[in-house]
Design brief:
This protein is mostly helical. It has a single domain, classed as MFS general substrate transporter like domains (Growth Hormone, Chain: A). Helix content is 83%, strand content 0%. The radius of gyration is 21 Å and the shape is globular.
Length: 421
């Protein structure tokens, strides 16, 4: 299919892609607004550096606990679509709880962390149900294109929402009024998730869902099949190592921007805007490379880009303050050009290896294992930073360590791609 025909006619001839764009709009809007508010609200509620790292740890550790039993249950449901809708509604409830945290006098930060943990659990179940139901709605040969269109709308939202949130927060004078604004943002996000549930109700399956009765022999059989699925085990191991080196500096990344580059809300919003802008500019390029070279090779370029993130931070923080802030924004544009590969390729690589009869369980095990580095590595990164001095020198040294780890991961993925040829 010619590129211009693809652009003009694909959505018209594949309405499921248009509906997935709407799904991306509602869920993406909510997720982007939540991400833009989460750390800032935690700080305004009195969170310290350790509690900020818990924003990553707690949701992922609860996701780790709930994912595998959730996968078994989802595989044995008569309607995975209803499961997706149910978890969307629970996700919306969790978001409302987060927004209610400032009302809990004397324990707002504890309630905030507990609510964030609930959101992480519901999101984990939603992702398993969503990912396991996706192949029942979309034909295999359309996966890359449908996901490309959905990711496009997600990236556009990622460009528009963070600076909008930042401008609103900067324009508000008092801390009390800013906290109220955070609460309004969470209420809007909860409403958007409910609208996503309404949209998802209109999906129809094109492939039947295999219905089974949950039993111990069946569970034993599913686990045995998974342990003998070598392509799945190899990909999961590679993906986990990728996530280990990806997640290690998440908290340090934020500390570097706030403490050393001294970014305000608008500047933090600009960084959050630049990342999806860089992705969007290259999304069509990477989507075509996927169809030409497969889904594994582009991950190498993604890891090379991520390896430059700590170098960009080290460069910016040692420049004069007024110059470093701008240099960092420019470098972010360059290093995040291949970043869309994470969202576009990992799910497709996973679908190529999962057990088609029990996708929910395979996906839940995968998500469960990915939760571990996402939960633990940001705390390890902060521990390394503090062990090296907890100052500018410590930030520089820890970033050099992260650079080396990510470069090694890129080499491993290149070898993995070569072995799969």
């Amino acid at each position: 299919m010619k590129p211009n025909v693809f652009v003009n006619n694909f959505l018209k001839t594949n309405p499921v892609a248009a509906r997935y764009m709407a799904d991306g709009f509602f869920l993406g809007s909510a997720a982007t607004v939540i991400a833009s508010n989460q750390s800032l609200l935690a700080i305004r509620l009195g969170a310290n550096d350790f509690q900020l790292s818990l924003l990553y740890f707690l949701p992922h550790i609860f996701s780790f606990i709930i994912s595998i039993p959730g996968g078994f249950i989802i595989d044995n449901l008569y309607s995975r679509k209803k499961a997706v809708i149910l978890f969307m509604l629970l996700y919306s409830f969790g978001v409302l709880c987060v927004g209610s945290s400032p009302f809990i006098k004397g324990g707002s930060i504890i309630f905030f962390l507990v609510s964030i943990s609930l959101v992480g659990s519901f999101t984990a179940l939603l992702n398993i149900a969503w990912m396991s139901y996706f192949p029942n709605i979309v034909d295999n040969d359309l996966h890359n294109r449908v996901l490309t269109y959905r990711l496009r709308i997600l990236l556009i939202l990622g460009i528009l929402a963070p600076p909008g949130v930042g401008v609103i927060l900067v324009s508000i004078k008092t801390e009390h009024e800013k906290i109220i604004a955070h609460q309004v943002f969470y209420a809007i996000s909860a409403l958007l998730i409910i609208l996503a549930a309404v949209n998802y109700h209109k999906f129809r399956s094109v492939h039947p869902v295999i219905k089974k009765r949950l039993s111990f022999p069946e569970i034993k059989k599913v686990i045995k099949n998974l342990l003998h699925n070598k392509p799945y085990l190899l990909f999961t191991g590679m993906a986990m190592f990728f996530h280990i080196t990806w997640a290690i500096d998440w908290t340090m990344w934020y500390i570097g921007q706030v403490q050393y580059l001294r970014y305000n809300e608008i500047q933090l919003g600009l960084v959050s805007m630049i990342i999806p802008l860089a992705q969007l500019s290259m999304l069509k390029f990477w989507s075509r490379k996927n169809e030409k070279y497969g889904k594994k090779l582009p991950v190498v370029f993604c890891m090379l880009g991520l390896s430059l993130c700590p170098l960009a931070m080290n460069t910016a923080v040692y420049l004069p303050h007024s110059i470093g802030q701008h240099v960092f924004l420019v470098l972010c544009v360059l290093i995040f050009l291949p970043y869309s590969i994470i969202s576009l390729n990992f799910f497709q690589c996973l679908l190529q290896t999962v057990d088609k009869n029990n996708p929910g369980f395979s996906i839940s095990v995968y998500n469960c294992l990915m939760c571990l580095p996402s939960a633990i590595m940001p705390m390890i990164g902060v521990s390394i930073y503090n062990a090296l001095g907890g100052d500018l020198g410590g930030l520089f040294s820890s970033n050099i360590i992260v650079f080396g780890l990510r470069l090694f991961t890129a080499i491993l993925w290149l070898m993995y791609w070569r072995l799969s040829l």
